[in-house]
Amino acid sequence: MGHRASCVLLCLGLAIIPTAALAEASEEKPGASDLDPDYAAGKKAIEAKDWKAAIKALSSAALRDTRNPDIQNYLGFAYRNSGNLDAAFRHYEKSLELSPRHRGAHEYMGEAYLMVGNLAKAEEHLDALRAICLIPCEEFKDLKAKIVAYRARGTK
């Protein structure tokens, strides 16, 4: 293989790497959960801010799909918004156990840490997002803004 052909293959390979890394870090991968009526009902309940219904539907979906980090992240979000931070942390941790690069779980867990006054842990999740996002991502921007607002309030 000539030098020119090697360069072309190398450039093509490098062009693919960021795309693969972005796909790995994204949420909402299409799959069987999209067809699950409880998953769909849980997402709809979250949009309506009906946390109790979201928790019920997503918990049912989680029983059938135990390896889905998105379901765990949504459960964490619903529990956090319902005021049950212990359950929220458990589900965010499960989401990150299943998918350590899950941007949404890092953002929401960071926000939950701010709610309990743990700025250092929130910043750890911001740092994780900084490393995960190859280009600035919404989750990083959102968590950073919440940390800046938290600091502005003078909360330690």
List the helices and strands and how they pair.
Elements: H1 3-25, H2 37-47, H3 51-64, H4 69-82, H5 85-98, H6 103-115, H7 119-132, H8 138-152
Helix pairs in contact: 2-3, 2-4, 3-4, 4-5, 4-6, 5-6, 6-7, 6-8, 7-8
Q: Determine Rg (CA atoms, Å).
A: 18 Å
What's the total number of strands? Answer: 0
Low-confidence stretches: 3-26
DSSP helical segment count? 8
**CATH fold-level assignment:** Serine Threonine Protein Phosphatase 5, Tetratricopeptide repeat
Span of the ends, CA to CA: 61 Å
Helix content: over 70%
**Mind telling me the CATH superfamily name?**
Tetratricopeptide repeat domain
Short description:
With 156 residues, the chain is mainly α.
Describe the structure.
α5 runs antiparallel to α6. The radius of gyration is 18 Å and the shape is globular. By secondary structure, it is mainly alpha-helical. Helices cover 76% and strands 0% of the residues. The chain contains eight helices and no strands. It has helices at residues 3-25, 37-47, 51-64, 69-82, 85-98, 103-115, 119-132, 138-152. The protein has one domain: Serine Threonine Protein Phosphatase 5, Tetratricopeptide repeat, CATH 1.25.40.10.
Key features?
single chain; 156 residues; mainly alpha; Serine Threonine Protein Phosphatase 5, Tetratricopeptide repeat; 8 helices; disordered N terminus
